């Protein structure tokens, strides 16, 4: 899926604005219909978003906290995640970031950070 490869390219360049646009596109497409959601999931969106999440956590939580929240919100649309995405999000740095978001975010952020069906 073209949008997923664009996200990986943008994450490497730290282009926050383009990156956020691409994640929003995934969220919007996933909300549009169940077939879209299935297509996004089947094309590895969970792994891609989890890898981007981990990459931005490694750069700076403080600098990218809003972007990290957007990724977690997008991931809730394609839950359950595959094993590879789970490993990426289960890394110590990623888990610390998720806990920080849960502790510091507003109710909306906390609700969207907790993965649900």
From TrEMBL:
InterPro entries xref list: ARM_PUB
Every U-box domain range: 8-114
Source domain of life: Eukaryota
Pfam assignment, any one: ARM_PUB
Identification of the protein by name: U-box domain-containing protein
Organism per entry: Protea cynaroides
